[in-house]
Amino acid sequence: MSSNVKRLNEYWTDIYFHMHYPHKEKISHQVIRILQLVEKKEEVGVNEVATYLQISHNTASEHVKRMVEKNLLFKERDLLDERRVLLHLTQPGKEVLHRNTSLDEEKLEQVMNQLADKERAVVEQAFKLLSEQAKTCL
Length: 138
Description:
This protein is mainly alpha-helical. It has seven helices and two strands, in the order ααααββααα. Strands 1-2 form a two-stranded antiparallel sheet.
């Protein structure tokens, strides 16, 4: 791994460490990964969860069942294939996901306001470019 990649990873972990929201709820890493999958991909069902997490269908089904009971997800029959059940985030699920994966917007705004206009534009462009390229890797 190149030293540039290591530095970039260190920068990212520094940013997240200093600027994430305080964690309010006890929630497992796997639950967060499932919420992210449902948010970022279209038409996610239990099979996609199992494949994504590399776990058995039964284990994925149990995770999803608990998340539905906790009102983080809801299920809906696919309109095109009624045999298929799709997963969606509830509003509380969206809020939990945001608090556990996003940067605190107030902290971020404070930091961005300390930058010059050109620096803010560079930061935004760099994050946009990384985001676009990351989406092509999956």
